[in-house]
Design goal:
The complex is a heterodimer of chains A (145) and B (323). Chain A has 145 residues and is of the alpha/beta class. Chain A is built from 4 helices and 4 strands, in the order E-H-E-H-E-H-E-H. The chains are: A alpha/beta (145), B alpha/beta (323). The A-B interface holds A 51-52, 55, 59, 72-73, 79, 82-83, 85-103, 105-107, 137-142 and B 184-185, 189-196, 222, 229, 236-240, 242-243, 246-247, 249-250, 253-254, 275, 278-279, 282-283, 286-287, 301-307, 309-316, 323.
């Protein structure tokens, strides 16, 4: 595949307000590097992530979508991430069934104290997506500039 | 059986146990059976025979504000949908008298056509043989070869949670309903993508699958929202076709009773039930066996959790070689 030299992946990271968003903050204040093409969207809880948001992100040009939330058992609202876990499992399975590349979607649990894990996760995810290349299977041509 | 049903319905209405009955009438063609409400004056037009494949339970939702009880004729598979609608409080079970009717599997006229039988004028059945009269003469077909696909992987002929059962049923299931899903799972992602692009690109967005689905009972539907980007009557591009079917399958995940109506009504013959069945298969494998609509008041798997559920990455790890 001839890779466009200019192409860099667009990553959307949905981060829960209480853990992962704070974890991203910590990564920032700790001067840890992670690629600038990760766009963070803050959500109140990982279970706020409507599966439609993931599809919408792909439609609008995302090449990978990652959900970060509190570790199971640590949810600010006690049980939100348990529901999110089942929902995302079903959604990922559906996307896989339709032949969308595995690896374009991911869930990681990142606590507020894990700035280093946040940076490492993002670095790894961006690398995976860069290897997978552009999102061709789930793109909306109408949304292309 | 049809006469027995009419008689029983009339008795129930005359006794004051119910005011109307939801059943089938003959539609435009002799083999069409469309849902209709009857009262005691026109109950004679009620039809129940081997063409009554349609699931009528969804029509009860609109009846709920009316006074009195409605009798609904349910086949074994329809009884699951009725229970699911009651679980979701779309139908008030107290306003419904569920009359179970026996089922020997329903006939698919399209299947006869794909066998090359054209110009059908009448179909009569005797035991396990269908006699199809056509403009070009008579043909005999084995009944089991003309059954609807959904009858070939029937959930069983037991009516769940009905008030009364009339008539006998006969098992029609001939195989594993997850066979095709497993076949697709064994393909590589690119092959699966090609398969679904081929199927979904046939979609004309008639919304018949949504309108017939007993689980799709929202009053305001996302596909009617002009801001959703998926409200077009004809899909504008590949993404929209994918999106429509992913959203629909996902909305009914864990609530789909696998009644098979989506595939039955699809004018383009898209095997939509395969999407729903994949969700059912996953739920069974990951969260324990679950049959939506088996009884009223069940908690469905996506509104439930356990502390030891698998992480979402499990779906990427399964199937190994095809990653």
């Amino acid at each position: 595949m001839s890779v466009n030299q200019e192409w860099t992946p667009n990553i959307v990271a949905f981060c829960c307000n209480w853990c992962s968003y704070a974890g991203a903050d910590l990564a920032g204040s700790g001067r840890m590097n992670y690629p600038a093409n990760v766009k963070i969207i803050r959500i109140p809880c990982s279970c706020r992530l409507n599966p439609l948001f993931v599809l919408r992100a792909f439609q609008r040009g995302a090449d990978g979508v990652i959900l970060c939330g509190c570790h199971p058992g640590d949810c600010h609202y006690s049980t939100g991430n348990y529901y999110a876990r089942r929902r995302m499992t079903m959604l990922f399975s559906m996307l896989d069934y339709l032949g969308i590349e595995r690896g374009r979607t991911r869930v990681e649990w990142v606590s507020a104290a894990e700035g280093a894990k946040f940076a490492a996760t993002m670095n790894d995810f961006v690398k995976t997506i860069t290897d997978l290349g552009e999102n061709k299977k789930l793109e909306d041509l109408r949304c292309k500039k | 059986m049809q006469e027995m049903i009419k008689e029983r319905v009339l008795t129930l209405i005359n006794e004051g146990a119910a005011d109307r009955v939801l059943a089938w009438e003959t539609g435009e063609f002799f083999y069409d059976r469309t849902p209709k409400f009857f009262d005691k004056n026109n109950v004679n037009d009620l039809k129940y025979d081997s063409f009554c494949g349609a699931n009528v339970t969804k029509y009860l939702i609109a009846e709920m504000p009316k006074e009195g009880k409605t009798i609904v004729l349910v086949k074994p598979c329809d009884s699951y949908s009725l229970n699911q609608l009651c679980t979701e409080h779309r139908v008030n079970r107290e306003k419904v008298y569920a009359l179970g009717v026996g089922c020997r599997g329903k006939i698919d006229v399209e299947k006869l056509r794909t066998m090359g039988i054209k110009g059908i004028t009448a179909i009569t059945e005797e035991g396990d043989t269908l006699t199809v009269s056509t403009l070009y003469g008579e043909k005999k077909v084995a009944r089991k070869d003309a059954l609807l696909d959904k009858c070939l992987c029937c959930k069983g002929k037991e009516h769940k949670g009905v008030d009364e059962v009339i008539g006998d049923s006969e098992e029609t299931s001939v195989g594993d309903k997850f066979e095709m899903v497993a076949k697709l799972e064994a393909m590589t992602p690119d092959e699966r993508f090609e398969f679904w692009r081929g199927e979904l690109s046939k979609c004309i967005r008639c919304n018949a699958c949504r309108n017939v689905c007993p689980a799709c009972s929202c009053i305001k539907c996302v596909f009617d929202n002009p801001k959703s980007g998926v409200d077009n009557k004809a899909a504008a591009d590949d993404f929209e076709e994918n999106m429509f079917h992913i959203i629909r399958a996902y909305h009914v995940a864990g609530r789909c009773t696998d009644c098979g109506e989506c595939s039955r009504v699809c004018p383009q013959g898209i095997p939509l039930h395969l999407l729903n069945r994949k969700m059912i298969k996953d739920i069974n494998e990951l969260y324990g066996d679950y049959q939506a609509g088996a009884e009223i008041g069940q908690r469905h798997p996506l509104t439930d959790y356990t502390l030891s559920d698998d992480e979402p990455s499990v779906v990427h790890e399964r199937g190994g070689a095809n990653a």
